[in-house]
Amino acid sequence: MFLSRLEIQKFRNLQPAIFECSPHRNYIFGDNAQGKTNLVEAIYLLCLAKSFRTREDIDLVPFSEDTYFIEGGFTSDEHITHHVGIMFDAKQGKRIHLDGKKLNQFSKLVGLFPIIVLSVNDYEITSGPPAQRRRFFNVLLSQSSSRYLDDLKQYEKVLKQRNTILADIAAGRAQGNNMLDVWSDQLVQTGVRLMAARSAIVEELNHYLADYYSTITNEKWSFRVVYRPNVEFKQNDVAARFESALQRTAFKEKKQGKTLVGPHRDEFIFFISDNDLRKFGSRGEHKSALVSLKAAEAQVLYKRTENHPILLLDDLYAELDNDRSLKVLNLFDPAGQIFVTGTSLDYAGMMSSIEHIDDQSTFMVDNGKITRV
């Protein structure tokens, strides 16, 4: 899958632009705070209907404006073309059109155009709270399985309803035991499928992580991710373990007014050798681990969807020298499309390395203006 054409109107600080993209490598250079990340953010938004930097669409609107518009043309590995247009209006909200038809459910866009982003925000995956790691795995699994996305949405709906009943019980507004049992059964049914999918995806990622990490660092330390479900289980007893955990915590849940067990409290731990990366990793080790994770994610998405995901490598060269940066790019399948951002200094240092590459595009961003070099 690759983005062939991009149009931007009134998106953050970017000036109106229409340009063609290389199906392989696209380099975006410019000084800090000129709009490079805004550009890759627009591409991400076209693929997943949401930003990787903010939950609020109004944040994407330029100062003194109340709308934005972006449109993209995509070509699949089977040479099938699609067009996505997203318009936001502060009064009417967001509207998305796919091949000229309005999408009433934005989630229907997820998985059609697989995409991966590596940005400064992703340090939260390896160093931040568990919710950031769950979010990473939810996005990966949702792009590779519509069933998982449906289960995740259903689980979140059930969790919300169950928490409402528990809050009423805690406040003395209701007994609610019969309704609680109904929602508990649904929580178990959907939660079991989420946990099974998460366990499987971790196993797939671990096929690649150690080799990729060694390639980047020239070190033979192992790198892996371990799934720590909130409800410990074996393959054949997931539902029974989940039900037992709910029974054990029933009194506490009714007292605290919220659901205390389930995949919404799962954890994923990254290890370099036997050391917990979050607790003991250096900044450089986190960067190398994140790049390895994204490369493994690309392999898993391709195998599951049979489409090469679009890769957004924002500020790739930060904390990596030129040699290591080239190793990183070589990790990714050359048949896929990559957007790489860097500073003007990175451009000066990388010119000799990238100018001989065929089928590439290089852009400069200056105060929101995008210019092909």
Quick overview of this protein structure:
It is built from twelve helices and 15 strands. It is of the alpha/beta class and 373 residues long.
Q: Main attributes?
A:
373 residues, Rossmann fold, alpha/beta, six-stranded mixed sheet
Protein architecture, described:
There is one protein chain. This protein is an alpha/beta fold and 373 residues long. The chain has a domain at 1-114 and 307-373: Rossmann fold (3-Layer(aba) Sandwich). Helices cover 43% and strands 22% of the residues. It has helices at residues 36-48, 123-127, 130-144, 146-170, 177-205, 209-217, 238-248, 250-256, 277-280, 283-305, 322-331, 344-354; strands at 2-9, 17-20, 25-29, 67-75, 81-89, 93-98, 101-102, 115-118, 223-228, 267-272, 275-276, 310-313, 338-342, 360-366, 369-372. The strands form 3 sheets. Strands 2-1-4-5-6-7 form a 6-stranded antiparallel β-sheet, covered by helices on one side. It starts with a strand and ends with a strand. The model has no long low-confidence stretch (mean pLDDT 93).
